[in-house]
From TrEMBL:
One of its GO terms (biological process) is lactate catabolic process. GO terms for molecular function: D-lactate dehydrogenase (cytochrome) activity; D-lactate dehydrogenase (NAD+) activity; FAD binding. Belongs to the FAD-binding oxidoreductase/transferase type 4 family. InterPro entries: Cytok_DH_C_sf, FAD-bd_PCMH, FAD-bd_PCMH-like_sf, FAD-bd_PCMH_sub1, FAD-bd_PCMH_sub2, FAD-linked_Oxase-like_C, Oxid_FAD_bind_N. Residues 42-232 form the FAD-binding PCMH-type domain. This is FAD/FMN-containing dehydrogenase. SUPFAM superfamilies: FAD-binding/transporter-associated domain-like, FAD-linked oxidases, C-terminal domain. Keywords: FAD, Flavoprotein.
Length: 552
């Protein structure tokens, strides 16, 4: 029997008491403790949390969910809760208990022969790296820019992307286990039917593909997942190419498409970054020259770029294979770039060593600058090899000018202001050029720096990530960033471009703009979770009614 007839306060108090019986006092947090544990997100989002639950085993998760159902208190499951720029650990709605799964940290099984690993939600990129190194296993960790302390499953469940050959992280998930809203345990059909081994090596299973329900949704609490791991090949080599002029972008897009088509399985993702994005990687934010709530003036960007000899766009890719394959691929890359006025530079960690040695001989600030850039480059190359690190995190704090403690960076706690606009962009030269022009114009109109990255997801499509950086100490600047997101969303949609993922503040857009899909999700929820206790409001139609008249 549920007790949703009780007033909310009493319901909440009796639920807390019941959870404490199961989990113990220390693993059931009240509202104040939860507020202290889960900082405001980098996007500025902070919900009124009812508390947090910290289970350590699957049966504890099941019992926690059953009690939530009985007491009609909604839960918001997170893995490590570092969903920076999309809401962090914060739910779509106020009044949820965070169901924090970071304590489920088992690497349940690693199959070195078939290269799969089954992990619980608390297993981080760093933990898997350490495990692989300890056992001398030649696999890459599916690393992201969000760094070593992020959950492998949390990222995959958001359908995040990374920087290694298996860049589509949910694409690499072959099997999921989840607790449903009634506390029962879902396992894929093949595993139930007696073939768990097959289930771990074949993503689609048999019958309706149900694992997908547990991504970007609210249909269950995922307690384990199997991930296919990419082998670290004999040679990993990155390549760089510079575009001197903005007008060279369409030709570069065509070349990227040709490289990816030609070198499928050898070329990893290719990134294109605009000048402002590259400036943000190599120069501190020029605070003294930027009026409050404004983007860096164009003449300052031009001067910094001249000083550092930065191009209009920088392309970065990686080749994976045996030494002979990579050598042959290098020639193909050069050939495909012939149509673009540029030259490719190839680099691997081996070649970087002597350069770092030489930089030590350069005295003064020049030497220091060279060493810092080579250090970042080395860390960037490590990520491409599946060795997670924090090299991408300072971006979140570029505008704020502080980056947290190396080794313990946490953009939410460090006060960084960033929310993401991350649309999918078909790999057509004219579409990409038009998109880049649109982002630049709209962002500058809103006093936000247009820092554009285009990451290839295939030879057909880029995911563009645009961090809208703002000063989190300045509420007006935060409002500006949110208005900028809305304007980008609208201008992108006018061109048929939409994000692959939304922050918790933006769920009503999904609900309103996809009424059919949203309504179907709501109908499924009505059956699977009639009490609406799991992540209420995530990617379902209900959010449209609640949001009322908010614009597109
Ligand atoms: C500088 C910077 C760089 C970044 N780079 C990248 C990048 O390269 N690629 C990328 O994808 N993202 C990136 N991000 C965004 C984000 O920080 C990452 O995606 C991060 O991995 C998400 O946090 P998490 O892994 O802790 O997942 P969580 O926050 O734990 O999970 C994300 C969401 O998934 C759902 N969820 C999580 N676990 C469960 C579960 N067990 N059951 C049911 N639902 C669950 C919840 O709705 C949760 O809010 C970056 C952010 C910053 C600031």
């Amino acid at each position: 029997m549920g007790n949703d007839a009780l007033p909310p306060d009493e319901r909440h108090a009796s639920a807390l008491a019941a959870w404490r019986e199961v989990l113990g006092t220390a693993r059931v947090l009240g509202p104040d403790q939860a507020r202290a544990r889960y900082p405001q997100d980098t996007s500025g989002t902070r919900r009124a949390l009812a508390g947090a639950l910290l289970p350590g085993t699957v049966p504890e998760v099941q019992e926690a969910v059953r009690l939530a159902q009985r007491h009609a208190v909604p839960l918001y499951p997170i893995s490590t809760g570092n969903n920076w720029g999309y809401g962090g650990a914060h739910p779509v709605r106020d009044g949820c208990m965070v169901l924090d799964l970071s304590g489920l940290r088992a690497i349940r099984r690693l199959d070195p022969e078939l290269a799969t690993v089954t992990v619980e939600p608390g297993v981080t990129q760093a933990q898997l790296r350490a495990h692989l190194d300890r056992h001398r296993l030649p696999f890459m960790v599916p690393a992201t820019g969000a760094g070593p302390r992020c959950s492998l499953l949390g990222n995959a469940l958001e359908r995040g992307y990374g920087l290694t050959p298996y860049a589509d992280h949910f694409g690499a998930v072959t099997s999921l286990e989840a607790v449903l809203a009634d506390g029962s345990l879902y396992r894929p059909a093949l595993a139930e039917m007696g073939a768990p081994d097959v289930d771990e090596v074949f993503k689609w299973g048999i019958g309706p593909y149900l694992d997908g329900l547990f991504t970007q949704g609210a249909f269950g609490v995922v307690t384990a997942g199997t991930i296919a791991l990419a082998h670290r090949p004999e040679r990993v080599e990155s390549f760089f190419f510079e575009l001197r002029e903005e007008s060279h972008l369409p030709a570069a897009v065509a070349a990227v498409r040709a490289i990816l088509t030609d070198l499928e399985g050898v070329s990893g993702s290719i990134n294109l970054m605009n000048r402002r994005r590259v400036v943000s990687m190599v120069e501190p934010f020029p605070a003294a020259e930027v009026p409050p709530r404004q983007a860096v003036p164009e003449e300052v960007v031009a001067r910094l770029a001249r000083r550092q000899r930065l191009p209009a766009w920088l392309g970065v890719g990686a080749l994976y294979g045996t030494a002979a394959v990579v050598r042959a691929a290098r020639a193909r890359v050069r050939r495909h770039l012939r149509g673009v006025p540029t030259r490719a530079l190839f680099l691997n960690r081996g070649r970087l060593g002597p350069l770092r040695g030489l930089s030590r001989l350069i005295p003064g600030a020049l030497g220091e600058g060279a060493r810092a850039r080579l250090e970042s480059l080395a860390l960037g190359l490590e990520i491409l090899e599946g060795i997670p690190n924090e090299v991408a995190l300072p971006l979140a704090c570029w505008r704020a000018g502080r980056g947290g403690e190396p080794g313990a960076r946490d953009p939410a706690r460090d006060g960084c202001g960033v929310l993401w606009y991350s649309p999918l962009v078909p790999m057509r030269p004219e579409t990409v050029a038009d998109y880049a022009g649109m982002v630049t114009r709209v962002a500058l109109e809103h006093g936000i720096d247009p820092l554009i990255t285009l990451t290839s997801l295939s030879a057909r499509c880029f995911d563009s990530t645009v961090p809208l950086l703002f000063d989190r100490a300045d509420a007006l600047h935060g409002d500006q960033a949110r208005r900028c997101f809305a304007a980008l969303f609208q201008a992108g949609r006018d061109r048929g471009l939409l994000p692959y993922r939304l922050g918790v503040e933006e769920m009503d857009r999904f609900a309103r703009l996809a009424p059919g899909a949203g309504a179907l999700a709501a109908r499924l929820r009505a059956v699977l979770d009639p009490g609406d206790i799991l992540s209420p409001g995530r990617y379902t139609a209900q959010e449209a009614e609640r949001a009322g008249g908010k614009g597109t």
